Amino acid sequence: MSILSQIDQWPSANAVSVVIDGHGGVVDQHGDVDRVYSLASVTKLLSAYTFLVALEEEAISLDDPAGPEGSTVHHLLAHTAGYDFDSETIRFAPGAKRGYSNTGFEKLAAHLEAQTSISMADYAQEAVFAPLGMACTKIAGSCAKDGRSTAADLAKFAAELLNPTIVARETLDDATRVHFENLSGILPGYGRQNPNDWGLGFEIRSTKNPHWTGKDHPASTFGHFGQSGTFLWVDPEHRLACVTLTDKNFGQWAVDAWAPFNEQVLASQLS
Question: What pTM was estimated for this model as a whole?
Fold first, then answer.
Protein backbone atom coordinates (compact mmCIF):
# COMPACT_ATOMS: atom_id res chain seq x y z
CA MET A 1 0.00 0.00 0.00
CA SER A 2 1.27 3.45 -0.88
CA ILE A 3 2.42 5.68 1.97
CA LEU A 4 0.25 8.33 0.34
CA SER A 5 -2.94 6.45 1.27
CA GLN A 6 -2.77 7.89 4.78
CA ILE A 7 -4.28 11.10 3.40
CA ASP A 8 -7.58 9.21 3.46
CA GLN A 9 -7.45 9.51 7.27
CA TRP A 10 -7.14 13.29 7.20
CA PRO A 11 -10.26 15.36 8.11
CA SER A 12 -10.93 16.43 4.52
CA ALA A 13 -13.70 15.27 2.24
CA ASN A 14 -11.25 15.06 -0.66
CA ALA A 15 -7.47 14.76 -0.82
CA VAL A 16 -4.85 13.85 -3.40
CA SER A 17 -1.08 13.48 -3.29
CA VAL A 18 1.50 12.99 -6.05
CA VAL A 19 5.25 12.38 -5.83
CA ILE A 20 7.50 13.45 -8.71
CA ASP A 21 11.08 12.27 -9.28
CA GLY A 22 14.10 14.03 -10.71
CA HIS A 23 13.19 13.04 -14.23
CA GLY A 24 9.84 14.77 -13.87
CA GLY A 25 7.92 11.50 -13.76
CA VAL A 26 5.15 10.58 -11.34
CA VAL A 27 6.45 7.80 -9.09
CA ASP A 28 3.48 7.58 -6.73
CA GLN A 29 0.00 9.04 -6.48
CA HIS A 30 -3.18 8.62 -4.50
CA GLY A 31 -6.53 10.29 -5.04
CA ASP A 32 -8.23 12.03 -7.95
CA VAL A 33 -5.48 13.95 -9.75
CA ASP A 34 -8.01 15.70 -12.00
CA ARG A 35 -10.12 17.26 -9.27
CA VAL A 36 -9.82 21.06 -9.13
CA TYR A 37 -8.84 22.53 -5.76
CA SER A 38 -8.47 26.05 -4.41
CA LEU A 39 -4.75 26.57 -3.85
CA ALA A 40 -4.74 29.55 -1.44
CA SER A 41 -1.10 30.60 -0.97
CA VAL A 42 0.32 27.80 -3.11
CA THR A 43 -0.81 30.26 -5.79
CA LYS A 44 2.29 32.27 -4.88
CA LEU A 45 4.51 29.60 -6.42
CA LEU A 46 2.75 29.98 -9.76
CA SER A 47 2.91 33.75 -9.50
CA ALA A 48 6.56 33.74 -8.46
CA TYR A 49 7.43 31.67 -11.52
CA THR A 50 5.49 34.10 -13.68
CA PHE A 51 7.49 36.97 -12.20
CA LEU A 52 10.73 35.09 -12.95
CA VAL A 53 9.71 34.89 -16.60
CA ALA A 54 8.96 38.62 -16.57
CA LEU A 55 12.38 39.29 -15.04
CA GLU A 56 14.09 37.26 -17.75
CA GLU A 57 12.08 39.06 -20.42
CA GLU A 58 13.11 42.36 -18.79
CA ALA A 59 9.48 43.39 -18.48
CA ILE A 60 10.35 44.18 -14.86
CA SER A 61 13.57 44.24 -12.81
CA LEU A 62 14.39 43.48 -9.19
CA ASP A 63 15.46 47.08 -8.72
CA ASP A 64 12.18 48.61 -9.91
CA PRO A 65 10.60 50.78 -7.21
CA ALA A 66 7.34 49.13 -6.16
CA GLY A 67 5.31 49.15 -2.99
CA PRO A 68 5.98 51.53 -0.10
CA GLU A 69 8.66 54.21 -0.09
CA GLY A 70 12.10 52.64 -0.48
CA SER A 71 10.74 49.27 -1.54
CA THR A 72 11.54 47.42 -4.77
CA VAL A 73 10.32 44.38 -6.68
CA HIS A 74 13.10 42.53 -4.87
CA HIS A 75 11.68 43.43 -1.45
CA LEU A 76 8.15 42.48 -2.49
CA LEU A 77 9.16 39.07 -3.85
CA ALA A 78 11.09 38.25 -0.69
CA HIS A 79 8.40 39.51 1.72
CA THR A 80 10.59 42.29 3.10
CA ALA A 81 8.74 45.36 1.79
CA GLY A 82 7.06 46.12 5.11
CA TYR A 83 3.41 45.40 4.33
CA ASP A 84 1.00 43.86 6.77
CA PHE A 85 -0.21 40.36 5.93
CA ASP A 86 -3.41 41.36 4.14
CA SER A 87 -3.60 45.15 4.16
CA GLU A 88 -1.64 48.18 3.01
CA THR A 89 -0.59 48.99 6.56
CA ILE A 90 3.19 49.40 6.73
CA ARG A 91 4.69 47.47 9.64
CA PHE A 92 8.43 48.11 9.14
CA ALA A 93 10.99 49.72 6.84
CA PRO A 94 11.87 47.77 3.66
CA GLY A 95 14.51 45.14 4.37
CA ALA A 96 14.23 45.38 8.16
CA LYS A 97 12.51 42.04 8.74
CA ARG A 98 10.48 39.33 7.01
CA GLY A 99 6.77 40.14 6.86
CA TYR A 100 4.84 37.55 4.88
CA SER A 101 2.27 39.47 2.85
CA ASN A 102 -0.49 38.81 0.36
CA THR A 103 -0.60 42.54 -0.28
CA GLY A 104 3.03 42.52 -1.39
CA PHE A 105 2.31 39.97 -4.10
CA GLU A 106 -0.75 41.88 -5.23
CA LYS A 107 1.44 44.99 -5.59
CA LEU A 108 3.82 42.93 -7.73
CA ALA A 109 0.96 41.96 -10.02
CA ALA A 110 -0.10 45.59 -10.30
CA HIS A 111 3.47 46.59 -11.17
CA LEU A 112 3.73 43.88 -13.83
CA GLU A 113 0.41 44.93 -15.34
CA ALA A 114 1.48 48.59 -15.37
CA GLN A 115 4.73 47.74 -17.14
CA THR A 116 3.26 45.37 -19.73
CA SER A 117 -0.44 46.25 -20.10
CA ILE A 118 -1.08 42.52 -19.67
CA SER A 119 -3.18 41.23 -16.80
CA MET A 120 -1.46 38.99 -14.26
CA ALA A 121 -3.84 36.15 -15.11
CA ASP A 122 -3.06 36.41 -18.82
CA TYR A 123 0.68 36.73 -18.25
CA ALA A 124 0.67 33.58 -16.10
CA GLN A 125 -1.40 31.74 -18.68
CA GLU A 126 0.88 32.68 -21.57
CA ALA A 127 4.19 32.42 -19.73
CA VAL A 128 3.66 29.35 -17.52
CA PHE A 129 0.38 27.46 -17.77
CA ALA A 130 0.12 27.10 -21.55
CA PRO A 131 3.78 26.08 -22.11
CA LEU A 132 3.53 23.42 -19.40
CA GLY A 133 0.15 22.11 -20.56
CA MET A 134 -1.56 23.12 -17.30
CA ALA A 135 -5.00 23.30 -18.87
CA CYS A 136 -6.94 23.23 -15.59
CA THR A 137 -4.98 25.96 -13.83
CA LYS A 138 -5.89 29.61 -13.52
CA ILE A 139 -5.47 32.64 -11.29
CA ALA A 140 -8.93 34.09 -10.77
CA GLY A 141 -8.40 37.13 -8.59
CA SER A 142 -5.47 37.74 -6.25
CA CYS A 143 -2.13 36.39 -7.47
CA ALA A 144 -1.35 35.70 -3.81
CA LYS A 145 -4.20 33.33 -3.03
CA ASP A 146 -6.81 32.84 -5.76
CA GLY A 147 -5.29 30.10 -7.90
CA ARG A 148 -7.16 26.93 -8.78
CA SER A 149 -5.57 23.78 -10.14
CA THR A 150 -5.38 20.01 -10.12
CA ALA A 151 -2.72 17.66 -8.79
CA ALA A 152 -2.05 16.55 -12.37
CA ASP A 153 -1.30 20.13 -13.43
CA LEU A 154 0.78 20.87 -10.35
CA ALA A 155 2.79 17.70 -10.93
CA LYS A 156 3.79 19.23 -14.27
CA PHE A 157 4.74 22.42 -12.48
CA ALA A 158 6.75 20.49 -9.89
CA ALA A 159 8.57 18.71 -12.72
CA GLU A 160 9.41 22.14 -14.13
CA LEU A 161 10.83 23.20 -10.76
CA LEU A 162 13.07 20.13 -10.80
CA ASN A 163 14.11 20.60 -14.44
CA PRO A 164 13.42 24.19 -15.55
CA THR A 165 12.63 24.75 -19.21
CA ILE A 166 10.74 28.05 -19.13
CA VAL A 167 13.45 29.95 -17.24
CA ALA A 168 17.17 29.38 -17.02
CA ARG A 169 18.46 27.05 -14.33
CA GLU A 170 20.48 29.97 -12.97
CA THR A 171 17.32 32.05 -12.63
CA LEU A 172 15.54 29.37 -10.62
CA ASP A 173 18.62 28.64 -8.50
CA ASP A 174 18.82 32.31 -7.60
CA ALA A 175 15.11 32.45 -6.77
CA THR A 176 15.40 29.46 -4.43
CA ARG A 177 18.38 30.72 -2.42
CA VAL A 178 17.94 32.94 0.63
CA HIS A 179 17.41 36.62 -0.15
CA PHE A 180 17.85 39.24 2.59
CA GLU A 181 19.61 36.87 4.98
CA ASN A 182 19.24 36.62 8.75
CA LEU A 183 15.80 38.22 8.97
CA SER A 184 13.34 36.99 11.56
CA GLY A 185 9.61 36.83 11.05
CA ILE A 186 6.41 34.85 11.50
CA LEU A 187 5.82 31.71 9.45
CA PRO A 188 1.99 31.56 9.42
CA GLY A 189 0.75 28.63 11.46
CA TYR A 190 4.21 27.82 12.83
CA GLY A 191 5.15 30.91 14.80
CA ARG A 192 8.24 33.12 14.91
CA GLN A 193 11.27 31.83 13.05
CA ASN A 194 14.75 33.28 13.34
CA PRO A 195 15.80 33.29 10.63
CA ASN A 196 12.61 33.14 8.56
CA ASP A 197 14.36 32.42 5.28
CA TRP A 198 12.72 33.07 1.93
CA GLY A 199 13.78 33.24 -1.69
CA LEU A 200 12.05 35.15 -4.49
CA GLY A 201 8.52 34.03 -3.72
CA PHE A 202 9.65 30.55 -2.64
CA GLU A 203 9.64 29.60 1.02
CA ILE A 204 12.92 27.90 1.97
CA ARG A 205 12.99 25.31 4.72
CA SER A 206 16.42 26.31 6.03
CA THR A 207 16.65 25.74 9.80
CA LYS A 208 12.98 26.42 10.57
CA ASN A 209 11.54 24.44 13.46
CA PRO A 210 8.69 23.66 13.64
CA HIS A 211 7.99 23.30 9.93
CA TRP A 212 5.51 21.63 7.63
CA THR A 213 8.15 19.58 5.77
CA GLY A 214 9.81 16.60 7.41
CA LYS A 215 12.66 16.82 9.92
CA ASP A 216 15.07 15.15 7.49
CA HIS A 217 14.27 17.39 4.56
CA PRO A 218 17.43 19.27 3.59
CA ALA A 219 17.70 22.97 4.30
CA SER A 220 17.53 23.64 0.55
CA THR A 221 13.96 22.29 0.30
CA PHE A 222 11.62 24.95 -1.06
CA GLY A 223 7.93 25.33 -1.76
CA HIS A 224 4.79 26.70 -0.14
CA PHE A 225 1.66 25.69 1.70
CA GLY A 226 -1.80 27.21 1.53
CA GLN A 227 -4.58 28.02 3.98
CA SER A 228 -6.93 25.83 1.92
CA GLY A 229 -5.00 22.73 3.08
CA THR A 230 -2.55 22.46 0.21
CA PHE A 231 1.21 22.22 -0.21
CA LEU A 232 3.96 21.68 -2.75
CA TRP A 233 7.59 21.03 -1.86
CA VAL A 234 10.69 20.43 -3.92
CA ASP A 235 13.78 18.73 -2.49
CA PRO A 236 16.59 19.67 -4.91
CA GLU A 237 19.16 17.55 -3.07
CA HIS A 238 17.26 14.28 -3.42
CA ARG A 239 15.57 15.36 -6.67
CA LEU A 240 12.02 14.83 -5.43
CA ALA A 241 8.83 16.84 -5.22
CA CYS A 242 5.41 16.31 -3.67
CA VAL A 243 2.07 17.95 -4.38
CA THR A 244 -0.72 17.43 -1.85
CA LEU A 245 -4.15 19.06 -2.10
CA THR A 246 -7.12 18.86 0.28
CA ASP A 247 -10.37 20.73 0.80
CA LYS A 248 -9.91 21.07 4.57
CA ASN A 249 -8.58 24.46 5.66
CA PHE A 250 -5.19 24.54 7.36
CA GLY A 251 -5.34 24.13 11.12
CA GLN A 252 -3.86 22.11 13.95
CA TRP A 253 -4.72 18.94 12.05
CA ALA A 254 -2.27 20.00 9.34
CA VAL A 255 0.45 20.97 11.81
CA ASP A 256 0.10 17.50 13.33
CA ALA A 257 -0.16 15.55 10.07
CA TRP A 258 1.97 17.22 7.42
CA ALA A 259 5.50 17.01 8.83
CA PRO A 260 5.30 13.28 9.68
CA PHE A 261 3.64 12.59 6.33
CA ASN A 262 6.31 14.46 4.39
CA GLU A 263 9.04 12.72 6.38
CA GLN A 264 7.57 9.34 5.41
CA VAL A 265 7.20 10.38 1.77
CA LEU A 266 10.87 11.32 1.65
CA ALA A 267 11.98 8.14 3.43
CA SER A 268 9.87 5.93 1.15
CA GLN A 269 11.52 7.37 -1.95
CA LEU A 270 15.05 7.07 -0.55
CA SER A 271 14.74 3.50 0.72
Answer: 0.98
